[in-house]
Amino acid sequence: MKKMIIFSIVIIVTILSMVTSNVTSDQNGFAIGPAQLDVTVPANGSVTTYVYITSYIDGELVVGTENLAFSIEPNTIQITPTDLNRKVEITVHGNASLAAAQYSGKLTFLLHAGNNVAYGVKTGININQEGGSKNESDWIFTDIIEPIQQNLFVILVVAGIVIALTMGIFIGKRTKKTT
Predict the structure, then answer these.
(1) Domain that holds residue 98
(2) I need a labelling partner for 121 at 20 to 30 A (CA). Which of 51, 83, 87, 100 fits?
(3) Same structural domain for residues 49 and 122?
């Protein structure tokens, strides 16, 4: 019976140590706000938005994107334990190769310790791009219909000549008498 109690205590302590080691308290790490950003950016331009950082540690945050084809500046942000709602400017650059649309993804703020990520925060971001490349659904118009419209006169003249020649050959064969 004593072995069962000792075994149960070891299991409980092991589980508690696993759970509590992954919990970050308010006085550890850093926090980024707001949780969601919404920006509108021209395809060939950029826009500035702001995040607020509260930090309890020294370090360098690596700023990146997740599921977004847009570039962000700065790539790194220095943080110190004295940061309390520090306003940090983030510049989002448009991507002219993308169609005008709304794109959703995340900004990532990672603090490395050696080769590992010690802390990480993800902030949602919706980027509404204005301008940009053609929409995929517009390819029929821009690649097929537009050139036809621009050359309609030439197409009609060539079609008329082909029809006239074909009719001439057909009529000539019917009227030709066999001897």
Answers:
(1) 2-130
(2) 100
(3) yes
